Amino acid sequence: xxxxxxxxxxxxxxxxEEKTVGICVRKASQALEKLGISGEVIVxxxxxxxxxxxxxxxxxxxxxxxxxxxxxSAYLKGIEEAKGKFIIIGDSDDTYNFSEIGKxxxxxxxxxxxxxxxxxxxxxAKGAMPWLHQYIGNPGLTWLxxxxxxxxxxxxxxxxxxxxxxxxxxxxxxxRGMEFCLELVIKSSLLNLKRAEIPITLDARQGExxxxxxxxxxxxxxFILLFCPNYLFLLPGLALFIxxxxxxxxxxxxxxxxxxxxxxxxxxxxxxxxxxxSEYSFTEGYTLKTAFFKRFYRYCKLExxxxxxxxxxxxxxxxxxSKAYEYxxxxxxxxxxxxxxxxxxxxxxxxxxSLIGLKDKNADK
Length: 365
Description:
Elements: E1 8-14, H1 21-35, E2 39-45, H2 52-58, E3 62-65, H3 71-81, E4 86-89, H4 101-109, E5 114-124, H5 131-149, E6 161-164, H6 165-171, H7 180-190, E7 195-202, H8 213-226, H9 229-250, H10 254-283, H11 291-299, H12 302-321, H13 330-364
Parallel strand pairs: 1-2, 1-4, 2-3, 5-7
Antiparallel strand pairs: 4-6, 5-6
């Protein structure tokens, strides 16, 4: 089939799925033929040691080999090789019914850019999903992503999805592990793509699952936090800084004043970490640079950061040698050291942020 004639590419990752990959390819091929859709079925093999490749090829799939291990790695390679303007993805373990791909194609033809299946709105066969995933893990992650990113989905971890090739280029996923589907959902929301969700059926898997409940759950949570430095660093840092200032300013007890000073320093350090995390996220393409940060980096260069740091440090030194210091109380004594600490932190942070941003600046040239 000519490349320009392909409308739909069905992409399946595969690692030792000889019992089911042929069935999945057959269902997808039959669905395409039945609906009169010009398409292709791609199996992205991730190093299978059984007869998976032979079974897939026997049913007419195009085989793409991906030596780099990982669920997301297989998809990255498979989608890279896909020729269709619409991409449909799904696992090759026969848990997703590829006979349902017509519902995805219909949505894409109607102008939607990103379509996700929902097992919770559809049907989950008995034993198809562990209770911990069904009642705690998946709903919990879905709620968290919905709350943080305003992503209105009922099943973020569903692996049966579809999107246009143009939307995929905008999303530009990077994840090589099980977080791949989460990245698609999060970025489709951040980019405000036209999204839809359709009910699907989840059947029981044949063979042993490759999911590792707690490890994959932690990796998913860690990945979500990478996308939301405001919640991870900004809010806690501001809260700790404000609390420290309040205790420092209102108390006359030396121990409480010291505790307030510690809160101020720690809060300030967490706010600097927020800048680090945000710049890293922008540079690596995980999130889009906001208007605030565009203005911030336009006016706050390395040189300004160094100057500000030296001024803060000099202010602390000056306070130490001022005449007022001879009669200083604990607050004045600690204030001088806080200013010196701030100065050193600002100088070092300015250099580090500039180092992180080198890649972003080079890309703009």
